[in-house]
């Protein structure tokens, strides 16, 4: 094949294929998926995820412990605070029987049908003034022992027989007005120590009372 033939072949190829090479690229090659398709796909995935989550939630959700409820104040503690406020305010007759009278403990023990022990709180700065008899909420008797320190501040220890249905308790704290009460139910009796003291001081004295009663 000579140069003339090559030129003819080249011209022939250009004639047939140049129109194809210069054709515009089809518009479909430039088209992208409409935006709404992507949004729809995302929404479908979210909905599917929520549905799966709702189905499995009952099996994987954490078990939340109920909030601890504050123990209800025993009526005995409320009555103890009110009796304390009433009788410690008395100047001349805060008690019925003075501590110097030997029959004080014997009398109150007989009324409660229980051998009472009277704690000594001299180390805490309080001396026993005496005591009195009070009515209980269930018609039973309550023994009240009153103590006083050198400044005239007073404490009362009240004792009542434990009802059969009542459960034993540890120290519990209550407050009625300015009166702080520590009370507990132990064995056959309930005890309430009341005073116009802060919680720390009354806790210390209540601990001393408890130890003596347990001896």
Write the layout of secondary structure elements.
Elements: H1 3-21, H2 35-60, H3 75-88, E1 97-98, H4 103-112, E2 126-135, E3 141-149, E4 154-161, E5 172-176, E6 179-186, E7 189-195, H5 199-214
Antiparallel strand pairs: 1-2, 2-3, 3-4, 4-7, 5-6, 6-7
Structure description:
By secondary structure, the protein is α+β, with helices and mostly antiparallel strands. The chain has two domains: 58 residues, no CATH class; 140 residues, MucB/RseB, C-terminal domain (Phosphorylase Kinase, domain 1, 2-Layer Sandwich), CATH 3.30.200.100. It is built from five helices and seven strands; from the N terminus they run H-H-H-E-H-E-E-E-E-E-E-H. Strands 1-2-3-4-7-6-5 form a seven-stranded antiparallel β-sheet, sandwiched between helices. Strand 5 and strand 6 form a beta hairpin. About 10% of the residues have low confidence.
Produce a short descriptive summary.
With 215 residues, this protein is of the alpha+beta class.
């Amino acid at each position: 094949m000579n140069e003339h033939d090559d030129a003819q072949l080249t011209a022939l190829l250009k004639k047939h294929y140049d129109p194809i090479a210069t054709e515009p690229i089809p518009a479909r090659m430039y088209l992208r998926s409409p935006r709404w398709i992507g949004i729809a796909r995302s929404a479908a995935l979210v909905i599917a995820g929520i549905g799966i989550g709702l189905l499995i939630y009952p099996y994987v959700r954490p078990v939340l412990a109920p909030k601890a409820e504050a123990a209800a104040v025993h009526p005995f503690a409320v009555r103890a605070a009110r009796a304390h406020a009433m009788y410690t305010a008395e100047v001349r007759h805060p008690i019925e029987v003075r501590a110097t009278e030997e029959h004080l403990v014997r009398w109150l023990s007989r009324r409660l049908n229980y051998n009472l022990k009277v704690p000594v709180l001299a180390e805490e700065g309080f001396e026993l003034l005496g005591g009195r008899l009070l009515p209980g909420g269930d018609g039973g008797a309550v023994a009240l022992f009153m103590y006083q320190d050198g400044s005239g501040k007073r404490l009362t220890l009240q004792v009542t027989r434990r009802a059969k249905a009542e459960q034993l308790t540890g120290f519990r704290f209550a407050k009625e007005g300015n009166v702080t009460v520590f009370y507990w139910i132990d064995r056959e009796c309930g005890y309430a120590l009341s005073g116009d003291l802060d919680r720390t001081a009354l806790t210390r004295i209540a601990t001393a009372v408890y130890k003596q009663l347990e001896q």
